[in-house]
Amino acid sequence: MSLLQHLVEQLHTQDITPVELDLCEYVISHLDSNGYLLRHDPETRKMEPYTLEDLAFGYAERPVNADDIEEAILTIQTLDPAGLAARNIKECLLLQVRADSPNADVLRTIIRQHLEDVAHHRLQMIQKQTSYDFDDISDAIEELKTLDPKPGSRFAAPSPRAIKPEVVVERTEDGDYTVRLADDFLPPVRISKEYLAVKKDRRQPKPVRDMLKDKFQKAQWLLSAIEQRKDTLRRVTQEIVKHQQGFFDLGPDHIQPLKMEQIAEQVGVHVTTVSRAVDDKYMQTPRGIFPLRRFFGGGTKSAAGQNVAWESVKTKLLEFIAEEDKKDPLSDEALMAKFAEMGLSVARRTVTKYRESKNIPTSRQRRIRVGN
Predict the structure, then answer these.
(1) CA of 64: how far to CAs of 23, 39, 200, 352, in Å?
(2) CA dihedral sign, ordered 138, 143, 149, 154
(3) How many CA atoms, within 13 angstroms, populate the side-chain half-sphere of residue 23?
(4) pLDDT, tens digit (0-9, with 9 covering 90-100), for 143-198
(5) Is this model's pTM higher than 0.70 or not?
(6) Are 50 and 64 in contact (CB under 8 A)?
(7) Helix ranges (DSSP H) in the chain
(8) CA distance readout (Å), 236 to 8, 180, 216
């Protein structure tokens, strides 16, 4: 059973209204695989907590505010396993501390203020700053070890799915690019002729006809929303292709810095609309299949004044390491110097961050591996 199924089953046993149930299910759909309310921020390239306002804005069934979302989160946090719907590790662990947990007060203090001290075995510092008994601190740390920092990960993950691109970019004979939506992007949706006939049948009781009229209005709104969504995705993709033509013509080294705000301005929509349009969407191109988010990101300027995307910097970093002398691998400082030779000012900490993001060991570790 998946985490989503497990939680929805529990929700249906709770004493909540259908409206509250629907909102809770909506919030649950935003939990990551570990059970946290986190999302990938395209600006910082990090996992950031959803804000209450973000979630409220994205709920389409009815207008809700931050307080409504907070109530739904509090309901979800009462479900099993404990620790779900947290925004950070501290909140996750605190949700797992029960009133009858051994040394509960000491444990909560350690979680709120001294997790780093625990990680570095600085028990004397904890005792000095809290005045708790050393044995109580030790017992609380033992209890801390029983808590689960990833409560959602114990559930079966969804089966891996084959990537099906939502949009297709094709090159024409004159070198331009066309954008079309994949035929199977969304299943066909239509209004049932049978129910339409019932709606028009004057012999039907008025309450039945009124109910069907309301349902058909909602159905027509849904059809309109689907077409608008498809049109937005098509227009957003067209603008991405315009901005990133160097990528399509010459390859990944020529991707340009691009922010969602730029595309939003060109398409005439809010930046959150662009973010939702490209989220978990893929583009089939003559160069392969890529996530649409791949084409967004910041960058830097070369000594010649050219814009260079950070994605290109990462690609070049991989090339430097692939071509290095395996008996004398390049240190992060040496990699920084190679970028400088290209006219790019890339800080050493940036080199380190990108290297670690690709799970590439340090130069010393790489040299040891080759020696073995």
Answers:
(1) 9, 20, 35, 43
(2) positive
(3) 23
(4) 999 999 999 988 866 556 678 899 999 998 888 999 999 876 667 788 888 888 88
(5) no
(6) no
(7) 3-11, 18-28, 52-58, 66-76, 89-94, 104-113, 115-119, 123-130, 134-144, 193-200, 206-243, 245-250, 260-267, 271-278, 310-323, 332-341, 348-357, 363-371
(8) 34, 11, 30
